[in-house]
Amino acid sequence: MKTILYIVWALFVAAAIFSLLHASRRTKRQEQQMASWPKAQATVTGSATGWTSGVGGSNRNLRYFPTYQFTDPQGTLFMGKSEISGVEQPVPGSLIEVAYNPANPNESLQVSSEPRTAMGCLIAFFAVFAVASFWFIGVFPMG
């Protein structure tokens, strides 16, 4: 029976590692892309709403994704929606920094260190969870 628990544990850890690597690569790719893109101050125009997944028995929470507009050096107006959500609704008229693709300014991303911070927290959480669950399987009495 413990063998089955260890197999399930190994599959969970493998899936978590795969997911974290995929998310980490995506975040790194976006950061590298944004490093060479010009930056602009964007004005928040409103927000789009979404929900957290509620995975793991947690409550689903409403999240707000700022919508914004900015102008390039030629004065052309562009609009975008941030991929970074917040718990509080953003105030229209407030400023955020965005990076935009000079070849296609319709492609823009909000500049933030949050994705990197979140990845660090997720990696630490899953590492502790994996070690604790492995220990628990070892001490769990199988009758």
Automatic annotation (TrEMBL):
Residues 40-108 form the DUF3592 domain. The chain crosses the membrane at residues 6-24, 118-140. Keywords: Membrane, Transmembrane, Transmembrane helix. Pfam families: DUF3592. InterPro entries: DUF3592. This is DUF3592 domain-containing protein. It comes from Pseudarthrobacter defluvii.
